[in-house]
From TrEMBL:
Gene3D superfamilies: Single-stranded right-handed beta-helix, Pectin lyase-like. It comes from the Bacteria. InterPro entries: Pectin_lyas_fold, Pectin_lyase_fold/virulence. This is Right handed beta helix domain-containing protein. The keyword Signal applies. Keywords: Signal. Residues 1-25 form the signal peptide. The keyword DNA repair does not apply.
Length: 959
């Protein structure tokens, strides 16, 4: 795995402040001019070099990348490639490294900034901290042997992260619900360029009050550096404190930084900062209490830290982030003058900084969805302004007005917000083979949310009162949707630390985008977010701009990816989430999402709808997408969320595999073809999808063995296969290692009818001739033997007489009962009563099924069935007039629960919405919504968390 290397000597580290390499081959000797794309020049950079070098030769390398870049500008670009070879080391950038057309290559000359052979240089936006640590006697409240240390640090603003031995230290944090909100703040349209509309007199609050038991002292240090965060189901919003005051009652009043806190309170769909909801309060000195926490006392110029177990802070490498942006790649004139033909190979970019969005001295971060930032006080219904009040968050690497820019076999780590962003007028660029880990926000972002249309005119204005094209980020004649972008073989590990509403890979509007063979592991929300615009710009009568459908996102390819462990914090998501139309109406240039493996959680879960965690979540307006040969497991809601919510349509699922049949396919022109096995046992085609998903062979070295053990590559999933057939493997072991298929418990390995072997580097293994269940064992060349692998080969015909499994808890309802299928030649009893094939169960129960073959052999299965609360309340489909009463089963929902009748796909509810109605737990009836439509029942708890949703539909129609 690529990692940030620890510099052993701080003395040496101090000598390599800003580094970069450069020198030409043979000290300025030009290569054969008749050999295009041979290396014409090689420039060298080393931490031990000098920027006073004349030529950046191997013997006299430059010290910084900036100096190497300046030198490369002067070299001829028609003789072949120019290599800037960068030696191992830690390179502190003094400022953002900017590449424009003057720093570019040509069709005959690619400029390649490449790590030297065997080197792993780090290009850092931070500073190696060399302060002297001492025990912090003023932190005198610690227990259990913990000790805090402190060291002097001069800095003009707050600090949201430090990195100790390559690991991000955490700010202090506690959560509480404020006693109340206080004060009012008003905005008048036009009072500033960010004030697009006026606010109400009582809409915006200026602060809130926390109970004295919360422990937030009114006289704590640096109150202006305290952050307050609230969460919706799919995004978080943050404001900052201006000051703290002690109230007459002895509680603590927090006064918000304005005007950004006003903007943050003006968002729809409950995504706004809410001063009276549960608040996470961050960066308070007195809460320094756990290993790995830090606090920067800006006023006292002192850095505090509690070391982790086994960590000696006096010897640790500590990096303090400083630059918001490390690399800027941008031509000077969109659509005309480009940055081009530049490659970065084998370089790790790390330690960017971001202290939240700044507006007139106030700070915060708020948005309605994903990695966007709300920057204007504007219409709460963001679609009406065509998202012109929003921008994309800052990235450590930013690329715009550029083509043929490649980031190859490197890394992006420990960022303040986004990793890399390819924004506008970008084409023919690649991000391949990178280790992208522990980013503050998403790892890879492509495009911009304002790209519904290119080069907007007055035709792209919703109304006279909405924002017009003059508010566009990209002026007329400068806008182009990214096209021909390749994102491939990247490992995105634990992205979105600071901003959990991000996805590790986010693309807005793109043409011919390729996202293939990536591995996304452990994230807070969706694994990928593809597309934008919802249904609001589909050009239909109900859209914002009827007759003007957005067509800028199409012909995208999202294939062979592996996504696991999603939604650790938020929900209303999917392993792969989509928005908007992704092809043309005749299905030309449609989008494909195929051969992906989405395992929402590695721990088996039940698809009970209690959280909106889907495999694929085609959200509003998603259309013209083919989903073929995907394996999706351990969802909590649906495998495919293809309900009739907000004009999604024309999505086709073929050759799918899952452990649950829970999906919705009620959207127009949507079909589902899927193999289901509750025991995760796949036919060979499904097995191969899992096996070949994620990183290709030459890139798996980035993933640690605790995440992907050897056996995961050699037997990737449970598989049902004919005896004697060849089973595919990745063959990533050494030739002297031996892979065995043998019965579980085997300790001595001998080839035979129930045991087969293959060399470690072979790509297949033959399944034993004897029917049975087999595990994979690895006998390494040194004689050590792995335990049995996690997965099982089921060789031969399935001998079970029924379609059920032992120990499973099945979720059933009257509309979706459990149907028991009994094979010919078998008989069965259920709890002692004989049953026929086709028998169904639609009630809660504990069951013993005994299946007997013709020769008298018995198989006993014990299982349970459960009916979700929503399905107990509403058992059948109902048709009713607007506001008509619908009967509910009494005695099911507890009094603290709330019952909603609303469109499928909603996770936030509003009683004032004409498409929603509600009743309290214990009610015998619920009124239908005012508006005609098709609705489902959703039951939430007292905190608003979804408990379950009904299979039954309520059709509201006027008589």
């Amino acid at each position: 795995m690529r990692r940030i290397k620890t510099i052993l000597s701080l003395v040496l580290a101090a000598l390599i402040l800003s580094t970069v390499l450069v020198s030409f081959s043979g000290c300025g000797e030009e290569a054969d001019p008749n050999a295009p794309h041979e290396v014409a020049y090689t420039v060298y950079v080393s931490p031990d070099g000098s920027d006073d070098s004349k030529d950046g030769s191997k013997e006299a390398p430059f010290r910084t990348l900036e100096r190497a870049k300046e030198y490369v500008q002067k070299l001829k670009k028609n003789k072949g490639d120019i290599i800037v070879e960068i030696a191992d080391g830690f390179y502190e950038l003094e400022d953002t490294l900017v590449f424009n057309e003057d720093d570019s290559g040509t069709e005959k000359c690619t400029i390649i900034y490449r790590a030297a052979e065997g080197a792993e240089p780090i290009i850092s936006g931070g500073t190696l901290f060399d302060g002297e640590w001492q025990v912090a006697e003023d932190v005198d409240w610690l227990e259990d042997g913990l000790v805090a240390y402190k060291a002097p640090l001069e800095r003009d603003d707050k600090l949201r992260a430090i990195y100790v031995n390559g690991v991000r230290a955490a700010m202090t944090e506690r959560s509480a619900t404020p006693l109340k909100a206080i004060g009012f703040y008003s905005i008048t349209a036009g009072q500033a360029d960010w004030a697009w509309i006026s606010s109400g007199e009582t809409t915006i609050r200026t602060g809130n009050v926390f109970d004295d038991t919360f422990g937030l002292s009114a006289d704590t240090r640096n109150p202006q550096n305290i952050e307050l965060e609230t969460s919706s189901r799919w995004v978080t919003s943050t404001v900052c404190a201006e000051s703290l005051q002690l109230t007459e009652e002895g509680d603590t009043r927090v006064n918000f930084q304005m005007p950004y806190a006003a903007i943050a309170q003006n968002l729809g769909w409950d995504t706004n900062y809410n001063p009276t909801a549960l608040n996470s309060v961050v960066n308070v000195f007195e809460w320094l209490e756990s290993e790995g926490q830090f606090y920067f006392d800006q006023a006292g110029s002192m850095l505090y830290y509690i070391p982790r177990e086994g960590e000696d802070i006096t010897k640790a490498e500590v990096v303090v982030p400083r630059l918001e942006k490390l690399i800027e790649i941008s031509g000077s004139e969109p659509l005309k003058k480009y940055a081009q033909y530049i490659t970065f190979e084998g370089l790790t970019f790390a330690h960017s900084d971001w202290n939240l969005y700044e507006l007139e001295g106030s700070h915060g971060n708020a948005t309605t969805q994903n990695c966007t930032i709300y920057t204007k006080y504007s219409d709460i219904y963001w679609h009406r302004d065509l998202y012109r009040a929003f921008d994309v968050a800052p990235a450590a690497i930013h690329v715009t007005t550029a083509h043929d820019i490649d980031f190859i076999d490197g890394g992006i780590e420990l960022t303040g917000y986004l990793g890399i962003h390819l924004e506008n007028d970008v084409y023919d660029c690649s991000i391949i083979g990178n280790y992208i880990a522990h980013t503050g926000g998403g790892g890879i972002t492509v495009g911009h949310l304002q790209h519904m249309y290119e080069n907007d005119t007055e035709e792209q204005r919703v109304s006279e009162t909405s924002a017009g094209p003059d508010k566009e980020k990209f002026a007329y004649g400068t806008e182009a949707v990214p096209k021909n972008i390749t994102i491939k073989n990247n490992y995105l590990l634990e992205n979105c630390y600071f901003f959990p509403g991000n996805s590790p890979i986010t693309t807005f509007f793109t043409y011919n985008l390729t996202v293939e063979h990536n591995f996304v592991y452990k994230c807070s929300y969706s694994g990928m977010s593809i597309g934008w615009g919802w249904c609001n710009f589909d050009g239909t009568e109900g859209s914002e701009l009827p007759g003007q459908p957005t067509t800028t996102s199409r012909f995208n390819h999202v294939n062979y990816n592996r996504v696991e462990e999603i939604c650790s914090i938020l929900q209303d998501a999917g392993g792969i989430y989509t928005l908007g139309q992704q092809g043309n109406e005749d299905w030309s240039e449609s989008t494909e999402m195929s051969y992906n493996y989405i395992n929402c959680f590695r721990t088996p879960t039940r698809a009970d709808g209690s959280r909106m965690v889907n495999g694929f979540h085609p959200d509003e307006g998603s259309a013209y997408i083919l989903f073929d040969h995907n394996v999706v497991t351990n969802t909590i809601r649906n495998v495919y969320e293809l309900n009739d919510w907000m004009r999604k349509h024309d999505c086709i699922v073929t050759n799918g595999y899952s452990n649950t049949d829970r999906s919705e396919t009620t959207a127009p022109n949507c079909t589902l073809e899927q193999y289901v096995n509750a025991d995760y046992i796949w036919p060979v085609d499904g097995y191969n999808v899992v096996l070949y998903s994620g990183l290709e062979d030459e890139y798996v070295h980035m993933v640690s063995k605790d995440v992907m053990p050897d056996d995961y590559y050699e037997l990737a999933a449970n598989v049902s296969i004919t005896c004697g057939k060849e089973l595919n493997r990745r063959g990533l072991l050494d030739a002297d290692d031996v892979v065995w298929l043998a019965p579980e418990g085997t300790t001595e390995f001998v080839e035979g009818s129930n045991m087969t072997k293959a060399a470690g580097n072979e790509k297949t293994i033959v399944v034993p001739d004897d029917p049975g269940e087999y595990k994979l064992y690895i006998v390494y060349a040194d004689g050590t033997v792995s335990g049995p692998g996690e997965f099982t080969v089921y060789a031969g015909e399935n001998t079970s007489g029924v379609n059920l499994s032992d120990g499973i808890d099945y979720t059933v309802s009257k509309l979706k009962p459990l149907e028991i299928e009994i094979k010919d030649g078998f008989t069965a009893t259920l709890n002692g009563e004989e049953i026929e094939s086709g028998y169904t169960i639609d009630e809660i129960g504990e069951w013993e099924l005994i299946c007997t073959s013709e020769d008298g052999e018995e198989e006993t299965l014990n299982f349970t069935t459960d009916v979700l609360i929503a399905n107990q309340l509403l058992t059948d489909n109902v048709t009713v007039a607007p506001e008509g009463e619908i009967s509910l089963t009494e005695g099911v929902a507890e009094s603290g629960m709330v019952i909603w009748l609303a469109p499928s796909g909603l996770s936030a509810f509003d009683e004032t919405d004409p498409t929603q109605s509600m009743a309290y737990g214990g009610s015998a009836t619920i009124k239908a919504p005012v508006e005609e439509g098709v609705y489902i029942l959703t039951v939430v708890d007292a905190d608003g968390d979804i408990l379950s949703q009904s299979d039954a539909r309520v059709t509201v129609a006027a008589e």
